[in-house]
């Protein structure tokens, strides 16, 4: 069985039954005993923990926005970033061994995060799973709050002037899976207000919103 001391320290949870963690990191190619069932369970556990977090954090946010925000926090891109921070690639058992250029690496690592969360849930209960989510998603939560502030300010500016609805489009993606760069443009109807690059779509949206807000304020000042 692999040595998991570094990983459990990064996760912030010590397993009573280490075999659960080992199973969570076993790809189907390695044998019949693999992480697919744990991945299935982890998907639901993650949605519950994330829903609980967002419900408490944003008491005035409407259901539709809560749903969209949750989707961005449990998507493959976010799960992959967390997997990379945990260096899960060092622990996943598969045949042939996982490599940086392994086909489907991004999805495979994202699935492993869900499986590990399910293992924590089975070993320590819902409270332990919730604590893991709060810990591992802390950077994502902070980024969402920052992005939400920038986008909210732009939205407030637009609504106060009774302008049309804003639209954010991802207009470019480049780089390897573990170092993707996204380009996002923000539009007012068909008019582009600004565009920016970022390491995530949320980051690019935030930067584009700031550019757009500054452009609208300058335009208003010149009027």
Give a quick set of tags describing it.
2 domains; three-stranded antiparallel β-sheet; 3 strands; elongated; Double Stranded RNA Binding Domain; Ribonuclease iii, N-terminal Endonuclease Domain, Chain A; mainly alpha
Describe this protein's structure.
With 223 residues, the chain is mainly alpha-helical. The chain has two domains: 5-136, Ribonuclease III domain (Ribonuclease iii, N-terminal Endonuclease Domain, Chain A, Orthogonal Bundle); 143-222, 2-Layer Sandwich (Double Stranded RNA Binding Domain). Helices cover 61% and strands 11% of the residues. The chain has nine helices and three strands. Strand 2 and strand 3 (191-198) form a beta hairpin. Helix 2 runs antiparallel to helix 6 (105-124). It is elongated and about 65 Å long. The termini are far apart. The model has no long low-confidence stretch (mean pLDDT 91).
Summarize the entry for a quick read.
The chain has 223 residues and is mainly α. It has helices at residues 5-11, 18-24, 36-57, 63-74, 76-86, 105-124, 126-136, 138-160, 201-222; strands at residues 166-174, 181-188, 191-198.
Provide a count of the helices. Answer: 9
Rg computed from alpha carbons, rounded to a whole number of angstroms: 20 Å
The parts where pLDDT drops under 50 for at least 5 residues are none
Total beta strand runs: 3
Shape: elongated
CATH architect. name of the largest domain: Orthogonal Bundle
Assembly state: single chain
> How much β-strand is present in the residues?
5-15%
- The CATH topology name of the largest domain reads Ribonuclease iii, N-terminal Endonuclease Domain, Chain A
* The CATH fourth-level homologous superfamily of the largest domain: Ribonuclease III domain
What is the CATH domain class of the largest domain? Answer: Mainly Alpha
Averaged pLDDT: 91
């Amino acid at each position: 069985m692999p040595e998991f001391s570094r990983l459990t320290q990064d996760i912030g949870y010590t397993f009573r039954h280490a075999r659960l963690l080992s199973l969570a990191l076993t790809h189907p190619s390695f044998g019949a005993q693999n992480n697919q069932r744990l991945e299935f369970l982890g998907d639901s556990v993650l949605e519950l923990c994330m829903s609980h977090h967002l419900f408490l954090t944003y008491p005035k946010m409407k259901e539709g926005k809560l749903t969209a925000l949750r989707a961005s926090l449990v998507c493959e891109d976010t799960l992959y970033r967390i997997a990379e921070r945990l260096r899960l690639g060092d622990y996943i058992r598969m045949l042939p061994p996982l490599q940086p250029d392994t086909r489907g690496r991004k999805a495979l690592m994202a699935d492993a995060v869900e499986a590990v969360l399910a293992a924590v849930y089975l070993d320590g209960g819902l409270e332990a799973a919730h604590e893991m989510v709060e810990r591992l998603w802390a950077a994502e939560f902070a980024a969402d709050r920052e992005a939400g502030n920038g986008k909210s300010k732009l939205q407030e500016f637009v609504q106060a002037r009774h302008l049309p609805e804003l639209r954010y489009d991802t207009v470019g993606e480049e780089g390897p899976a573990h170092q993707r760069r996204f380009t996002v443009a923000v539009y007012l109807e068909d008019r582009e207000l600004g565009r920016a690059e970022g390491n995530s779509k949320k980051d690019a949206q935030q930067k584009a919103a700031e550019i757009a807000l500054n452009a609208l304020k300058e335009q208003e000042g010149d009027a």
